[in-house]
Every structure is written in structure tokens, then in C-alpha cells.
Design brief:
4 helices, single chain, about 120 residues, alpha/beta
Length: about 120
């Protein structure tokens, strides 16, 4: 695994069911407009924190290398989800500490989807 930069870059992550619920909430309330749908500040996690969470879940250590940061890479990206929260009552419910392990279990259970020749 190669990290470009320090690994302290922050991203908000969003579990798939939270994305689906955002679209349902938007559709049911008949809202037009542009909305940020992301994890927001409550789901913000650094790359290193995410790797640690993966390692803790899998009980396997990751081999991580570092390269200089790349031009244009964001050090901090977190969506402002206040408009979606205010206008159609949506906010993410699955925190990274729950969502990352869930995703890893799903990948393990569906490993065949990620191999050559999988249908």
C-alpha cells in the first residue's frame, strides 16, 4: 500500500446504506437542488486511522510505504452535509468504526466477485 503524503490526510467516509438512505430521503421529500452527501465531520478519518481500523479488524498488519504528496491532492476533504440534514432530515448513521469492519466482512463473503472470471 502506497500513501502519497503523510497519511494524516482526512476524508469523510460514508457507508453504502447511508448513501441509499440519503437518496430515499431526498426523493420522498421531492427536493430539487444540489446537496452534499458524504460522511460529514462525524465520519472524518485520516488514512492512517483507516488503515489501523482495517488492521484491527483483520488482525493483519499492512505493509505501507510513503511517497511524497502529489500536486493537487487534498489534505482535508469533508462534506458539509448541513443542507441535506436541514432540508430532508438526513444524516449518516454508520460510523467508520462500524462501517469499515462491515465492508471487510462483505468483501470476504463475496470474494468471488473480485476474482477473474467471476460472473
Amino acid at each position: 500500500l502506497t500513501i502519497y503524503g503523510t497519511g494524516k490526510q482526512v476524508r469523510d467516509i460514508l457507508y453504502a446504506s447511508d448513501v441509499a438512505e440519503a437518496f430515499v430521503a431526498w426523493f420522498e421529500r421531492g427536493r430539487a437542488g444540489i446537496y452534499n452527501v458524504g460522511g460529514g465531520i462525524g465520519q472524518a478519518i485520516s488514512l492512517l486511522e483507516c488503515i489501523s481500523l482495517i488492521e484491527a479488524t483483520t488482525s493483519r498488519e499492512s505493509r505501507v510505504g510513503f511517497e511524497p504528496g502529489r500536486f493537487g491532492d487534498l489534505r482535508y476533504f469533508v462534506c458539509d452535509i448541513e443542507k441535506a440534514r436541514r432540508e430532508f432530515g438526513w444524516e449518516p448513521r454508520v460510523p467508520p468504526a462500524e462501517g469499515v469492519p462491515r465492508l471487510l466482512r462483505w468483501v470476504e463473503e463475496n470474494r468471488g466477485l473480485f476474482t477473474r472470471g467471476a460472473a
